[in-house]
Structure formats: C-alpha cells, structure tokens
Design brief:
Radius of gyration: 13 Å
Order of helices and strands: HEEEEEEH
Number of helices: 2
Shape: globular
Largest sheet: 6 strands, mixed
Length: 100
C-alpha cells in the first residue's frame, strides 16, 4: 500500500452514490480538473487491503493509473487502492448495517 500511495496518481473526493460495481464522487483535489468534478470509480480495486465499506458522504482518496476517460462523469477503470480520509457521519442504524 505504501508503494501505491507514494507512486500512483490520486484524486480526493466525497462519495455521492454507491452502486454494486462503481461509485460516483465529486473531487476536491485532482490535478488538471476543477473542484467538484464528477468521477465514476469502478470498484475492481487491485489492492485488496483497500477501503471497501464505502458509504455516501465518505471522503476518500482513489489511487489510479492517472488516466480518466473524458466522459461525463470522468471514468477511472484502473484503480490501485482506495483509502478513507474522513468517514461520513453515520447513524447508529447505519453503523450496525455496515457490520453485517
């Protein structure tokens, strides 16, 4: 994981939608893109130690191959790792549902 963090491109953003095989997030920091850019991130993550309990409102960092398809939303298909930067505020019910 340390190698990925040190050597791969990354984008930080807030998760707005969670689907079975991808998420939609809005970026806060992404080189070459304005803040609030919409990203579609596929969840076929190469590093299995990545954060996978993603919920709407999480602030995450996505480490990827540096290439995003210029679609709307931007699409990233090669994802090396996802880390949690700031968790969403969760209710007690959501916390116990995420443990199941």
């Amino acid at each position: 994981m340390n190698y990925i963090i040190a050597n791969k491109s990354s984008v930080t953003g807030i998760v707005k939608e969670v689907h079975d095989d991808y998420i939609i997030m809005y970026s806060e920091t992404a080189a070459g893109y304005p803040n609030e850019t919409k990203w579609q991130i596929f969840l076929d993550v190469k590093n299995k130690d990545s954060y996978t309990d993603i919920v709407v409102g999480d602030e995450i960092v996505v480490y990827y191959d540096g290439m995003a398809a210029e679609t709307s939303p931007l699409q990233v298909s090669t994802v090396y790792a996802i880390t949690l930067k700031t968790p969403a505020k969760r209710t007690a019910d959501e916390k116990s549902a995420n443990r199941n």
